[in-house]
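Final report, Chapter 2: Outcomes

The project's central promise was a pipeline that accepts a single protein chain and returns its three-dimensional structure in a standardized token representation, suitable for archiving and comparison. That pipeline is now operational. To close this chapter, we reproduce one record exactly as it appears in the project archive, with the input sequence first and the structure output second.
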Amino acid sequence: MTASLPLLAQREDRPFGQASIHATLPVTVGWFNGQPCFYISTDASDADVAAALKANFTPELANAAPNASKVIYAVTNFTQGNIVPSTAMPAGPTNTDRGYSPLWQVSMVTWNAGSTPAILRSESEVLAMQSAGRVTIARTNIVVNCPILYTPQGGVLPGTRISMMSGMKAGSAEATATLPVTVGWFNGQQVLYISTDASDAAAAGAEANLSLPLAMAANTQAVDDIYVVTNFKQGNIIPSAPVPAGARNGSGDYTPLWQVSMVTWNEGVTPRVLRSEADVQAALADGVVSIQKTRIVVNCPVIFSPLGGTLPGVTITASRN
């Protein structure tokens, strides 16, 4: 079923004619298994964290913990990059690390009084310092959406270009990443989103990480529906978007996690472009389409909508083919 649906890779509905659209986002440098890792920060379940990250405030993400998320360690009283315990190896749809998720539940690491801080470069080092009584770890309910785009061990996510500045160091945002953009539909208007992760390799296409833990978010409050038309070429349809984009988002229903529902035009029916969830449901009520809900979950943060504007810090470019 999914082998014919590279749903994150389809980019047929393009505004401004046949333009190729890309988004450039700031990159944060953290640590994985002793080496730097590069990731972007698109969503956070806490408003203050979202503001600090210039990310979408997405309270529904808190409902993804703990099944679909992993731990990210943030040091509170020493300047260094955050530490993650897993990544896609290799980056992309052939990832073999079954533990990798772009969703991270924040644990705060604090050096205890009398301990001399040092850079912690791996989860094992964090836990060793905890066992030695040198740090205290406090787990929070905050979940952040930080897809990993590059590690020395796993390589760079296919289709992504990373630009590094001089003097780069872990914990800074002195790098940028340029990713392809998908065009979809929300509330009758075209929206732009990036497609970084999927719980199914075929659904991921060539340019997204396989993340098996994302499937654990299926049928929870952390996900919403995305409608993928199987037998008519058009963009996918989503039911919500951040308005406005960023930390002031007031759309409580918005989430970057979408559970795939496949929409098929029935035999003998002339297809048309469906531009909203209301269009999809009306077509279903009229008996002209059928809908099959899957357990596939995709991570597609919305970076622009006409109602919500552009996610802060993001630059969108379009070039003619």
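Archive annotation: The first strand starts at residue 19 and ends at 32.
This record, like all others produced under the grant, will remain available to the consortium after the project formally closes.
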